[in-house]
Specification:
The protein is built from 5 helices and 2 strands. The protein is mainly α and about 150 residues long.
């Protein structure tokens, strides 16, 4: 049994909630926020891509991958995530890279530990749960912003 195929399939299934939202986002939605929330819809889209790429590079050890996690560097929404095409392409790229990174793991890798400052020491299988929950968490936020944001 190749565990990586199951993990990759699980990630793709979990990411469908985000993909459904992406397919329905319009340019005017990117600046939407809910109430006094500091993050716009565009910023959160970029943030999801940033974190997926960081996971591929740092957690799944794709060290040759170039990542500039601008939302983490900036630390706040500065209103610059306004190109729908760029954001969609970035999320497509991040999805491809994390799926590729997951898919090349050997069965024995899933029991190895990885340590990050964000979540401490976890097995790769546990860290996988973290990236799924991160994407799903923000997909929920995006749905609320799209529906109720102004």
């Amino acid at each position: 049994m190749d565990c990586s195929l199951y993990f990759a399939a699980s990630y793709l299934e979990a990411r469908t909630r985000l993909q459904v939202l992406i397919d329905d986002i319009k340019l005017e939605d990117l600046q939407k926020r809910v109430g006094s929330s500091p993050n716009s819809l565009g910023y959160l889209l970029r943030h999801i891509g940033d974190v997926e790429l960081l996971f591929a590079k740092n957690v799944f050890k794709q060290e040759s991958l170039h990542v500039k996690a601008q939302t983490l560097i900036d630390g706040k929404d500065n209103g610059k995530w306004t190109s729908l095409t760029e954001l969609i392409n970035y999320l497509s790229h991040s999805s491809e890279e994390i799926i590729k990174a997951i898919s090349i793991q050997k069965n024995s890798d899933w029991n190895q530990t990885v340590t990050t400052k964000e979540f401490g020491t976890k097995t790769l299988a546990e860290a996988f749960g973290r990236i799924i929950s991160h994407t799903a968490y923000h997909a929920g936020q995006l749905a609320l912003i799209k529906k109720y944001g102004g």
